[in-house]
Structures are given as structure tokens and as C-alpha cells.
Design a protein that fits this description.
By secondary structure, the protein is an alpha+beta fold. Helices cover 28% and strands 36% of the residues. It has a domain of 139 residues: Roll (Pnp Oxidase, Chain A), CATH 2.30.110.10. The two termini are 18 Å apart.
């Protein structure tokens, strides 16, 4: 897409997302599936971090984490989230708003098994988001996990799983010269999507 091409308002937002993601996979130097996940604390303070998109279909957008992490606790308290993809090489971004639900245990097991062995051991050894007095403590726990499982199967920790964000809104943004950007927002209306072009 050139800078002069406008966003297609007749596009299905899932199909448009997939098309933009495919282009990003060709141009972004690393992690085109990186996205900002914004949650809120129980007292309403915003909280954001980068996670990786690990699956997408019409049910929503999937990522994985430790459910006892800060983000996991915030999701348990409030399932409303926002996602942001930014592809600097393409001068594009996509915002998605929605709610999370847990993936099935079978989905979590399958993805966990696909991770590298050291990443699986790390998930077992880490008390994600908890205070760590010294890095050597974590490294010792990682070594203990390696010794415990050896070359055998590494089970998925019960507190490690995934979430699916069901979109309630999409906003696509395309940079244009002189900050005269192109923006469009999709919101659901039954089985259809309403779309509106927005001022930049």
C-alpha cells in the first residue's frame, strides 16, 4: 500500500487485519506479531506491556502468559482490554478493543508444547511479576527444573495459559503526508460491521 492509498471501507476487518499482518511479516525486522496489551488495575489505573500474538481467527486474538502475573491478575479482575499493533516500516497501526476469555486447556497445551524447551522450563521456574532478590535465585530454579525433567516431557504449569480477545472495535490507521492520516473504525452491528472514516 502506498501512502496515497485510502483504507478500504468495504473491507472485512478480520481480512484487512490479516492482509496488513502479512505485509508486516515481510517488512518488519523482528516480531511483526508484537502488540501492546493494555489492561487496568482494580482501582482503574491503566497498565500496558508488549506481548506476542500467537493466533488469530474470527473468535479473536490469542496470547499466552502466566495467569499469576500482574497482567493475569488484572485480566481476572477486569476482562476489558485494548490491543495496539504498530508497524513503523509500513507507517501503520491497528487498535483493537474487546474482552478476554481463557483459551481451552487443549489449546494451551498445544501451544506450550510448541515452545522451545528452555522457554518451557523458564515458565516453570519463573514467578512472573513477583519480586526477585537476586538473579541467581531464578537461575538456580531454572537449573533445578532442568534436572527435574531431564530429557522427559515438560508439563504445562496450571497457572500458565492463554487468552483470546474478542474484538468489539477495530481502528485502522495509515500514515499520509503532512500528518493528514487516514483512519477508519469498525464496530459490530449484529452479524455485520459498521464502519466510519475518522478525522486524522
Amino acid at each position: 500500500m502506498t501512502e496515497q492509498t485510502l483504507i478500504d471501507l468495504n473491507a472485512d476487518p478480520f481480512e484487512l487485519f490479516s492482509a496488513w499482518m502479512k505485509e508486516a511479516e515481510k517488512t518488519e525486522p523482528s516480531d511483526p506479531n508484537a502488540m501492546v496489551l493494555a489492561t487496568s488495575t482494580p482501582n482503574g489505573h491503566p497498565s500496558a506491556r508488549i506481548v506476542l500474538l500467537k493466533g488469530m481467527d474470527r473468535r479473536g486474538f490469542v496470547f499466552y502468559t502466566n495467569q499469576h502475573s500482574r497482567k493475569g491478575e488484572e485480566l481476572a479482575a477486569d476482562p476489558n482490554v485494548a490491543l495496539l499493533f504498530h508497524w513503523k516500516s509500513l507507517r501503520r497501526q491497528i487498535r483493537i478493543e474487546g474482552t478476554v476469555t481463557p483459551v481451552t486447556p487443549e489449546e494451551a497445551d498445544a501451544y506450550f508444547a510448541s515452545r522451545s524447551r528452555i522457554s518451557r522450563l523458564g515458565a516453570i521456574a519463573s514467578d512472573q511479576s513477583r519480586p526477585l532478590a537476586d538473579r541467581s535465585i531464578f537461575e538456580a530454579r531454572l537449573k533445578a527444573a532442568e534436572e527435574q525433567y531431564g530429557e522427559g516431557d515438560i508439563p504445562r504449569p496450571v497457572n500458565w495459559s492463554g487468552y483470546r480477545v474478542a474484538p468489539a472495535a477495530f481502528e485502522f490507521w495509515q500514515e499520509r503526508p503532512y500528518r493528514l492520516h487516514d483512519r477508519a473504525r469498525w464496530t459490530p452491528d449484529g452479524n455485520e460491521w459498521n464502519v466510519t472514516r475518522l478525522y486524522p
